[in-house]
Design a protein that fits this description.
Layout: E1 23-29, H1 41-48, E2 52-53, E3 62-66, H2 76-86, E4 115-121, E5 128-131, E6 133-135, H3 154-158, E7 165-167, H4 172-182, E8 196-199, H5 206-222, E9 232-237, H6 243-265
Parallel strand pairs: 1-3, 1-4, 4-9, 5-8
Antiparallel strand pairs: 2-3, 5-9, 6-7
Length: 269
């Protein structure tokens, strides 16, 4: 059974392109169904997140969560069309008229979020993975829900100014440590601690593709030298879709979001 439809506008309130000490806004996305699934757990979990996370002793910053009104279709063309719209508030890239790259707040350009968490499932992994990097090329291997792949040359053509691999600007080792600390006391069904890890293989499918697309948007706008901020991560989830799986996924996603904010406020990203 498909999840209930969301209201037409994202939850939460915009607070500009960069976080301050009082409030950070995080955009969280999930994917739609594919390959015979009745529902995609990544969307169930994203859609179950609260609109607001109160401050805590370890994370004194308030966190607002923005959820799009619908899951992302598992389609290359959907992502190609969607990501520019997500980042449409960013200024144009450098040109002869504007030779200096600008950030998201210059000249009144503001994003309605500060950080981004894309989520999707990995049926081959029983653990939760924070992906550290994404790939420009290699999307000619696996068909999306429309039966389509991308040409081998797509990456070089679509992102000629981007390297083959882009990494998040987060200090992922620091985020992982904070993520694990935030999860203390949250246990899986067999009594073991929730298994969270970093990964450098996002899979060369739609998860990898949307991740690179978001990283590329920041790369183009915040500095082609690779030193600009790219405050995006991808969270791979196990494929379970029971009520317990969704609750565990929600708790794990919240712990990651808090870890990202804590790390950023500590100057680690």
């Amino acid at each position: 059974m498909a999840p209930p439809p969301r209201p037409p506008a994202p939850r939460g309130t915009a607070n500009g392109g960069h976080a301050d000490i009082d409030e950070v806004t995080v955009l969280v996305t999930g994917y739609d169904v594919f390959r015979g699934m009745a529902v995609n757990p990544s969307w169930l979990i994203a859609n179950s997140l609260p609109p607001y996370l109160p401050s805590t002793p370890s994370c004194p910053t308030r966190i607002k969560i923005l959820i799009p009104p619908a899951p992302i279709r598992v389609s290359y063309q959907t992502v190609v069309d969607l990501v520019p719209n997500l980042y449409s508030a960013l200024p144009p890239p450098p040109s002869a008229v504007n030779p200096i790259a600008t950030d998201a707040t210059e000249h009144g350009h503001k994003l309605p979020f500060d950080l981004v968490v894309h989520m999707g499932i990995s049926s081959r992994r029983p653990h939760y993975s924070m992906e550290t990097q994404a790939h420009r090329d290699g999307y000619d291997q696996y068909e999306d829900v429309t039966g389509s792949t991308l040409p081998v040359s797509f990456g070089k053509t679509h992102w000629p100014d981007c390297p083959e691999v882009l990494r998040t600007s987060f200090d992922t080792a620091d985020v992982l440590r904070r993520w694990q600390a935030n999860l203390l006391g949250i246990h899986s069904a067999d009594g073991a601690e929730v298994d969270v890890r970093t990964s450098d293989d996002a899979g060369h499918f739609l998860c990898d593709f949307v991740y690179f697309s978001s990283l590329a948007a920041y790369h183009r706008r915040n500095g082609l030298d690779g030193k600009g901020e790219r405050p995006v991560v991808f969270l791979h989830l196990p494929a379970g879709d029971t009520e317990e799986d969704v609750l565990r996924g929600q708790e794990t996603a919240v712990a990651l979001i808090r870890a990202m904010v804590e790390s950023r406020m500590a100057g680690k990203s």
